[in-house]
Amino acid sequence: MKTVLASVLLCVLAFCSVSVFGRPATFLEDFRVTWADSHIRQIEGGRAIQLVLDQSSGCGFASKRQYLFGRVSMKIKLVPGDSAGTVTAFYMNSDTDAVRDELDFEFLGNRTGQPYTVQTNIYAHGKGDREQRINLWFDPAAEFHTYTILWNHHHIVFYVDEVPIRVYKNNEAKGIPYPTRQPMGVYSTLWEADDWATRGGLEKIDWSKAPFLAYYKDFDIEGCGVPGPANCAANQANWWEGTAYQALTAVEYRRYKWVRMNHMIYDYCTDRSRYPVPPPECVAGY
């Protein structure tokens, strides 16, 4: 009996290892530097990294694999002090030009003492321009906080720590685009964007404050790796497809409404200068 159980356990572990991928032990296990490797420094034995922005360059990294559905999270400590004009981004991208899928966290730096703004955006089937912005209710440069993207067949949820700040539901049945077909890689960058990042570009980057530093740790990717078993993404037994993850819980919904009521500063759904008629996803339910 012990031999049979051991064999079954070994088979289960082997299946999981080729279908669903989990947390790496170090940065380089699942990620690669995409540009300016001299500006990305491994610390804590590779369990954390430091991103550097100065006048010579920003930097970026990406996952070695792409994933189709799952959950991605990282703990990030953002640029402290006067960070105006800087953007720290954490996102998923299909790396396709014409028909791009993308899920964005963009942290827009600000002057010392002003709140950090987080912009989220969603591209589905090549269509983006779905920006929402909130001001964080804490100092994200003082310590690490967890930023998470949950993506399943039912909805996409952006979390800050355990608080959902954005939900985009799958309304393909109503003809509304939703990313279901293209795998996406995981990316992050630290770069200068003072033409738009802070107060629409009014606040410029102060290079006397350089270098600007952001820190990452606890990289967590749990999803269907591509290439991999073709049936993984459709497997309703994957934990992120479970009943508990198909809609916000009552507690999550209260937190979500609190963020929307108290910290949201821009929503494309209510911007009548851009959209005299609200986009269909804005009237299809949260």
From TrEMBL:
It holds the Pfam family Glyco_hydro_16. One of its GO terms (biological process) is cell wall biogenesis. It is found in: Secreted, Cell wall; Secreted, Extracellular space, Apoplast. SUPFAM superfamilies: Concanavalin A-like lectins/glucanases. Its main location: secreted. It comes from the Eukaryota. The keyword Oxidoreductase does not apply. It is an enzyme of class 2 (transferase). The active site is at E102, E106. Its EC number is 2.4.1.207. Residues 1-22 form the signal peptide. The keyword Isomerase does not apply. Residues 18-216 form the GH16 domain. Keywords: Apoplast, Cell wall, Cell wall biogenesis/degradation, Disulfide bond, Glycoprotein, Glycosidase, Hydrolase, Secreted, Signal, Transferase. Contains at least one intrachain disulfide bond essential for its enzymatic activity. GO terms for molecular function: hydrolase activity, hydrolyzing O-glycosyl compounds; xyloglucan:xyloglucosyl transferase activity. Glycans are attached at N110. InterPro entries: Beta-glucanase-like, Beta-glucanase/XTH, ConA-like_dom_sf, GH16_AS, XET_C, XTH. Catalyzes xyloglucan endohydrolysis (XEH) and/or endotransglycosylation (XET). Cleaves and religates xyloglucan polymers, an essential constituent of the primary cell wall, and thereby participates in cell wall construction of growing tissues. This is Xyloglucan endotransglucosylase/hydrolase.
